[in-house]
């Protein structure tokens, strides 16, 4: 396995400076944002996909530092009920897939998307319970009339370009847990897999180790991000929490740097279990820690992750 980082963390740096930061930290791979929510601070797929010189510069900048690109990421909502938003996110996805092919990158990371409740909707509607029965009607329409047709079409498009998509399961979108990830894969195509991010599973009360075993070879990319559960706030209000992420003291959960939500034993088990199901790709740091600065969070995560990867490579892990 390789250790890497999602370099949107270094949006204030130039692309080359960000690569130098990654190299200096002893990491081996970079995940690059190319549009959608990650933004285009380093690479704008729509602008450069047909610019061969720009594509070559990206490849040479990465190769010259002995790094690899683990994935291109364009997290967005191509199923958004606002047609302009959906079209923009779809165009980001299309350009990112085309750019990935030119760069020789196998994987594009994004979200499944979430439609509204009907054709006339203005905002996405995420269904979280089966009653009143209106919700199940909405959910059936979202999957059968919007999501499955869209992703079947994208699966065919991906095959033409020899690229896979790794859907990041995240509450607020149709794919948010194990069974929804596997459903989309079964319905739309086996080149649609998972970007495994345990932080989004922790706060839903899921067990990431068991999820890895269930997802198996559908895991195409992995994020390293932790979650700290506040026991008191969760006991009072449950796991569904709409308070701002900055309201750390009062939230049921907050995202943390790896090792600051769950201990070494969990992360050792996670890396070992990934290997057991056949994953030998990159584990990419995603820093969204509201307590630590960018530099502190990245430095601690890189040291922690490099140590895990080194021990795993030496066969010193606690095999699940």
UniProtKB/TrEMBL annotation:
InterPro entries noted in UniProt: IolE/XylAMocC-like (IPR050312), Xyl_isomerase-like_sf (IPR036237), Xyl_isomerase-like_TIM-brl (IPR013022)
One Gene Ontology molecular-function label: isomerase activity
Species whose genome carries this gene: Cohnella cellulosilytica
Official protein name in the record: Sugar phosphate isomerase/epimerase family protein
Keyword flag Chaperone: no
Domain Xylose isomerase-like TIM barrel: 20-306
SUPFAM superfamilies in the record: Xylose isomerase-like
Keywords, alphabetical: Isomerase
